[in-house]
Amino acid sequence: MRCLIFFAIISTVLGVASCSDNVVIEEGINRSFPLFIENNTWQISYFSEGSIDETSTYYAYILEFEEDGVLKVLNKESVYIGTWKISKYFSHHLDFDFSSYEGTYDKDFEFLNHSWEVYFQQNGIIKLQRTDNRSILLHLKVR
Question: Is 18 helix (H, G, I), strand (E, B) or coil?
Answer without folding.
Answer: helix
